[in-house]
Write a structure and sequence with these properties.
Layout: H1 2-15, H2 23-37, H3 57-69, H4 78-81, H5 88-100, H6 116-124, H7 136-151, H8 169-180, H9 200-213
Helix pairs in contact: 1-5, 2-5, 3-5, 7-9, 8-9
């Protein structure tokens, strides 16, 4: 009952009141995404594909539409996001489904009665991003001054702004570099942006800070 209530709230966040998203349809659509992003939306183990499970649904919708419109350049994504392959309603369904997947950041506590399959299944759902080197104090100071307004103090995102905690650091660094080079649009208007004001070591420190707070979630 509790999970059902959560899913209803999630669907309303994606599509507004009056229409709940079809999570079963979203799961079916995700079978295509799983080829790169994994069955649980956990992404690639080296960050070659981002984690999309637990991501904010409005952000997933926005990015899939950006791929379709080619505002965000990613050639492998183009065939899968065309209107004939992924209409708007399907985008909302798969976004709601992916957002509903919870991957814990702590190893499960097993019961003596848990069989091998149960233990394996629970372990596969754990999502722990390795800690990376960096100045945590500097990373926290920069993040809480320049990033929290959109991505929330906890790094879990707000609205259409993505969750950063629990994302592969190699992927995040690659995206920050694309923002800085204007290869991917950020939210600032005109040339430059908040990331362009930071040094390379500052970016690394932010990533170090994000990996240090994931276990608090």
């Amino acid at each position: 009952m509790r999970n059902h209530f959560y899913f209803v709230l999630l669907a309303l966040c994606v599509n507004g009141p009056g229409h709940a998203q079809n999570l079963e349809k979203g799961k079916e659509i995700n079978s295509t995404c799983a080829g790169c992003h994994g069955e649980l939306g956990q992404g690639g183990s080296r960050g070659e594909y981002p984690r999309i499970s637990g991501q904010r649904p409005a952000y997933i919708v926005d990015q899939l539409k950006s791929f379709r419109a080619r505002k965000r350049v990613n050639i492998p994504m183009y065939p899968y996001t065309q209107e004939r392959e992924l209409p708007d309603e399907d985008i909302k369904d798969v976004a709601a489904y992916l957002a509903s997947i919870e991957l814990p950041t702590k190893w499960p506590v097993f019961k003596d009665s848990d069989d091998a399959l149960t233990r394996l299944t629970l372990t596969e759902r754990v999502m722990i991003i390795p800690r990376v080197a960096g100045n945590l104090a500097n990373g926290e100071a920069i993040y809480q001054k320049k990033c929290f307004a959109c991505h929330a103090p906890t790094g879990m995102g707000r609205g259409m702004f993505p969750m950063l905690v629990g994302q592969y650091t190699s992927y995040l660094m690659r995206q920050m570099e694309k923002y800085i080079k204007s290869e991917r649009p950020h939210d600032e208007e005109g040339v430059g942006g908040v990331l362009n004001t930071l040094r390379e070591e500052d970016l690394q420190d932010i990533l170090a800070y994000l990996t240090s707070i994931q276990e608090r979630q």
